[in-house]
Amino acid sequence: MNQFTPCQGKTTCRDDGVRCLTCGRSFDEIVRLREALDQLASLALDYDYANTADYSAYIARKLDKMIAHRRQATSPQTE
């Protein structure tokens, strides 16, 4: 299993044409995450949520549970 390394900011990003040399993530991974975050932000703006901190906390809580559930569902069952 890999460890996620957060971006250190666009001004510190350096690349070798394939990945960021600062955080080590591939450009594909960076682009996919940015697109997912853009969709979540657009949803909040489309519905004009005033309580964005609650929205963000809900997303984080649900996402963590969803990942754990999917990992459990795909892991080999031992008896």
Question: Terminal Cα separation, in Å?
Answer: 23 Å
The whole-angstrom Rg is 16 Å
| Oligomer description | single chain
Mean pLDDT: 89
Please work out how many helical segments DSSP would assign. Answer: 2
Coarse morphology:
flat
**Number of strand segments:** 0
Q: How are helices and strands ordered from N to C?
A: HH
- Estimate percent helicity: 40-55%
The major sheet is characterized as: none
Structural class: mainly alpha
Strand content: under 5%
Please provide a written account of the structure.
The protein has a domain at 27-73. It is 54% helix and 0% strand. The chain has helices spanning 27-46, 52-74. It starts with 26 loop residues before the first helix and ends in a 5-residue tail after the last helix.
Write a brief structural summary.
It contains 2 helices and no strands. It is an all-alpha fold and 79 residues long.
List the helices and strands and how they pair.
Blueprint: H1 27-46, H2 52-74
Keywords:
mainly alpha; 2 helices
